[in-house]
Hints:
By secondary structure, the protein is an alpha+beta fold. The protein is 23% helix and 30% strand.
Amino acid sequence: MKEITKRQRQVLMTIEQFCHEHGYSPSVRELASSLGIESPSAIFKHIHSLAAKGYLKHEEKSARSIQVVDQKTSSPKIDGEIDRKSTLVPLIGSISKGQKLEFFTTEEHIAFPAHFFKKQLPSYAFVVKDRSFESDNLLQGDIIAVQAKNEVEAQDKVLAIEEITGITIVNGNALREKSTQIQILGVIMAMIRSWGRYEADRK
């Protein structure tokens, strides 16, 4: 199979996820909305490229006719990158210690290695807004993925909102010791760091 770009992989994985959740393929407008792309023509271009490379089947005159070609691996190779299974997690807002959540008006999806997550549990991603979480080994610009879990284990790192102090990160074994009301947003499952972006912010 031919290699594809990162954006094309994002389009492909969004289609796969939509089909899995709804049982039918997305429309071009639904794809554009999910990916934060305003122009439907840009989506058509990606679809045609993926079809030409053998990853999709598509009938232009039929609605919801996009079909993902079954592959041995769920994630195609990207320009020198090794093959790996990934899952798309919606990036919904930013976090700063002691503050309120800031939600984005448009939703972007970030690819994380799928083996970090448990299936069927909702996951969300947040970008670290500033340096307030450096004591938790998170830098400005890091993107973390959190997942709802039925039970929080002692070794888990939990993103939560305390009634008085705002957003914080606590260890699972410390949750029982909290005397104030606390809302658990999820267990931190993975983190993506862009060194170039962080170094630029420091200058």
